[in-house]
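Page 47, continued from p. 46.
Same chain as before, 165 aa.
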Amino acid sequence: MNIQLTKKEIVGLYQSFLAVGNLKGVRFAYVIARNTLTLEPEVEAIRKMYVESKEFATYNVERIKMAELYAEKDNGVPRKMIKDGLEVYDIKDKVKFETAIKDLQAKYENAIKGREEQLKQIDKVLEEQTTVDLLTLDISDIPEEIDAKQMTNIFTIVVSKKVVN
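Result:
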């Protein structure tokens, strides 16, 4: 079945297929495996788009080293904490750190701008529509052990020849 999806939806569907890959059933396993292989080239191309330039990667390494240098230490190990759902370093002298990080950002200004532009381009690509040919599953081929979240995530390829009571 030809399905029109954004590239972002393709990535999500691919991840959903991987998440249900351990469920049993010959037809189910075949359809999930085949669809995963169909989507894999698209997902791999998007993954490659995320690769950082060497200069940005160098900046990132230096940024982390700097954060570790200015972080509070527990037995010589930089202390990390969770802030807004992200793991960050617990910076001891924030003023000195901010000055140092601004100098580092100035040094790598072109690399940072390049990365920002790269991410904008990726966002545009992720919104592009494309047509993919995927196999479908009848509701009767869905394993009993599938949960509601998993079912919702693969619903794009589920068809029902009759109404479920």
